[in-house]
Amino acid sequence: MRPTLDRRQFSQAALTATLGSAAAAHGLPVAADDRPAVLGGPPAWRGTWPAWPIADGGEEQALREVVQSGRWFRYAAGGPSTVDGFEQQWARQVGAAHCQATNSGTSSLIASLAALEIGPGDEVLIPPYTFVATVNAVLMHYALPVFVDTDPATAQWDLSLVEARIADATRAMAPVHLGGASCDMEALMTLARRRGLAVVEDACQAHTGEWRGRRLGTWGDIGCFSFQNGKHLTCGDGGAAVTSDAMLYGRVQAWHNQGIARSPDPQVAVRTGGNFRLTQFQGAILQQQLKRLEEHARQREQNAARLRELLSDVPGVAPKKILPGTTRHGCHLFVFDFDPAVFAGMAKSQFVRAVAAEGIPIAGGYAALHRQPWVERMLTNRGYQQIYGASRLRRWREENVLPANDRMLLTTCWFPQTTLLAEPSAMDRIAEALRRVQRHAAEIVRAA
Ligand SMILES: Cc1ncc(COP(=O)(O)O)c(C=O)c1O
Known about the structure:
With 448 residues, the chain is an alpha/beta fold. It contains 15 helices and 14 strands.
């Protein structure tokens, strides 16, 4: 256990006396004023945080080469394609036989569900603590998303509740590797195989995450990644589906390119398709970004471990539990809970405002996805009414109750991935900011 008091005394007294303006230049507190920033005190961190995305001359040169090549479209004739090259590298890196690049993580989810022939009348089990894209991909196929509650201790799916929600119409499960971690993927796959369900992993936030030494995204039938602007591997917008099943790969490939199959296998033919293609520019950027992925991942992992340890000394703050099978955390989000009882009954919005005022990037996490406006739009949609009928949709509404997720939403927050790319001492400032907000919680609540 580290000496908390020593650090606090050091930061408030010794630093003020000895480092003065040099400390301010490094974003450290210089005043003995312990008032929280939200009540007018000096913020715990005055420095900047790493900008994102990161690029250097490598990206510029790679883009220039694509411009000059005149080959901007991946299927244009001549020379090696940057997108082909990236697909091979990504497949190798995650340990899948095939990778199909797409123009977003959402489109990789849509194409993957299409490859599994998920369509009207089918039900897909999904967790509610996710970005709306997971739901949208199901809705795009006129399939029925069925939520199964969250395990608040981990913010991952509560697998103990999944089997009870499997119905005759259930065809697939789409676990979401929230923040870069996962639920028990062995247990999930055992259940899926026993009940004859397909698995599409939403690994959009889990580029380097692993469960028992195997990369997330490679446990299910297909795994989907996002290369959107905030992701660890980015080209502004982009995505990829990985699989070791040649037939599914062929179908994803066909779907992403207007239904045009490149494989002669008759099973590969898909009902239709769209244009979900990536350009040569994006392929070139991704190849450059890939060079930094591992180094950044290590840095985030080290900072996350440091922050986790520091937070063990902060009253009322608890990082989400990481399951023992997590051999590597993707560290896209540092997800944690604050305990309102230890923060004078503070509401989450107030907590987030107070921590943000200390100069710490913090988000209050996802809202209740199962109560967003899309729900009514789905239930009253003419197509959904025709496909599922009034009684199934009425039951869907009745069963759309997620008490654990609702409870979790009151206390769960996260720090974004760029926070974990800062210098290690910034983690101390995060802990100090949280400690200060906790010390002054009653005043903050009273002032609101
Ligand atoms: C969990 C999850 N699923 C799906 C997506 C969709 O990815 P994209 O934004 O690339 O379409 C995202 C990205 O924000 C995500 O975080």
